[in-house]
Design brief:
single chain, alpha/beta, Purple Acid Phosphatase, chain A, domain 2, 2 domains, six-stranded mixed β-sheet
Length: about 375
């Protein structure tokens, strides 16, 4: 009897394993079928790329105007240009909702003119979808407040108290508890969470986008390709991130959460260039590109060329939170140009070109203290 029982249990376990595998394959199939998005383009004549926005609508609009992407009313005037925004639209600033509304409008307008707007997924988009709210500015909640917000919060409070009483029949909510509870959930926060949920207006919009794209011979993404992920294709990375943001669990800690995942990896931006060089060569060869453009790491108040211009870090600190340094990247005829304070400055592709490049930027950005330190180090390298 015991052997028969063991055999039956083994068969049941095998069946469960098979069902689990089939369910995972179904998730992947649905992700590919419902969310597959084009992620590579060739023969694009003009590309403008902008780094992290972090809730600063006003500076975002200024930088678009300076790059001749929009007019003063925020309408598309760039024809067949491809605009790439490298993610991290939300957090740290109060006007995320306005920046998103502008991007959504430009997506529609650019498409009609033969252009394209690529809004990539950054780590802060993923954090907001998952409910990690450490960096949400209070103004982002306030933007969602309506005349119904107090009633919505009161209803949520009542349900919360009922749940607490089910767990602890002796629980009592006094006035002090209510005050602390309301401080932890400001008006507009519940609407914000609904909008950023997987099926919310913003969450669903984010999940339509890519993490990595290739335009001509340039790779664009928020963080970077780590040695751990360099074997994955562009499409595989995009589909896996979309699957995870849609609730699919491929691993205990997926691409969207790992410190070495494409939303978070900083090696191409911060690691010693000689130590990272072999990895970069592998990235360029694997994806058949000449350069990688990334955001995620604000540093000098301008676009920072690394590895003789084969990596461009374009998180300039656009948001007022990081100093409000306005610069975008122009790629045209295979050449890279920094657009900063209405000036066009060629991006150097040699180490010798770094010092004059940064010195010219410093004339435009006298407040960029970190840039001044870099210039001194280039001029008189420390022992």
């Amino acid at each position: 009897m015991n052997s028969l029982q063991t055999s039956a249990e083994n068969k049941l376990q095998s069946s469960n394993n098979l069902l689990g595998a089939c369910f995972l394959l179904l998730q992947i199939f649905l992700s590919q079928s419902l969310f597959a998005v084009e992620d590579q383009w060739q023969d694009v004549e003009r590309v403008v790329a902008i780094g992290d926005i972090h809730g600063d609508y006003d500076n975002f609009l200024k930088i678009l105007e300076e790059a001749n992407v929009v007019n003063r009313r925020g309408n598309w005037i760039a024809g067949k240009t491809h605009l790439v925004q490298l993610g991290d639209v939300p957090d740290r600033g109060p006007d995320t909702d306005k920046a998103i509304a502008l991007l959504q409008k430009l997506e529609r307008q650019a498409e009609r003119e033969g252009g394209k707007v690529h809004v990539l997924i950054g780590n802060h988009e993923a954090m907001n979808i998952y409910g990690d709210l450490r960096y949400v500015d209070p103004g982002e909640y306030a933007a969602f407040r309506t005349r119904n917000s107090r009633r919505i919060r009161d209803d949520f409070y009542k349900r919360d108290i009922e749940k607490r009483k089910l767990v602890d029949s002796g629980f009592f909510a006094d006035g002090e508890f209510r005050q602390q509870w309301e401080q932890s959930i400001p008006l507009g926060m519940l609407e914000h969470r609904s909008a950023w949920g997987r099926e919310g207006d913003i969450g669903a919009w984010v999940r339509q986008h890519n993490t990595v794209i290739k335009i001509n011979r340039t790779l664009f993404l928020h963080g970077g390709i780590s040695p751990e992920d360099v074997g994955m294709s562009i499409t595989e990375i995009n589909e896996q991130i979309r699957l995870e943001l849609n609730g699919g669990l491929g691993e205990d800690l997926g691409l969207s959460e790992r410190a070495t995942g494409p939303l978070w990896y900083r090696g191409l931006a911060t690691s010693n260039e000689e130590m990272e060089r072999l990895h970069l060569e592998l990235v360029l060869a694997t994806y058949d590109v000449d350069r990688v453009v990334i955001g995620h790491t604000p540093s000098l108040g301008t676009i920072v060329p690394r590895f003789e211009g084969r990596v461009l870090v374009i998180d300039t600190g656009l948001s007022s939170y990081y100093g409000g340094f306005l610069a975008s990247l122009l790629l045209e005829n295979g050449e890279a140009t920094t657009l900063q304070r209405n000036q066009e400055i060629p991006v150097p592709n040699t180490k010798a070109g770094l010092l004059p490049y940064f010195e010219r930027i410093a004339e435009l950005e006298p407040r960029a203290n970190a840039l001044q330190v870099r210039i001194r180090n280039l001029a008189s390298p420390p022992l």
